[in-house]
Amino acid sequence: MSLFDDDLPKKSMATHIVGSDLSLMSVDELTAHINILQVEIQRLEVEREKKSIGRKAAESLFRS
Fold this sequence. Notes:
Order of helices and strands: H
Helix content: 55-70%
Number of helices: 1
């Protein structure tokens, strides 16, 4: 273990694999996975909005 390991970003222990078997998960595990996916959806929506703004700006520039 390095002296500088604290500087590295922490990885989430819970991950979700799309299409995985959900029947073996507890309610707490399902809740954790839902939370992970909701955060990821929000992150994707923010990125989509950034790209949409950039695209609209480029389209208006080239229409002139």
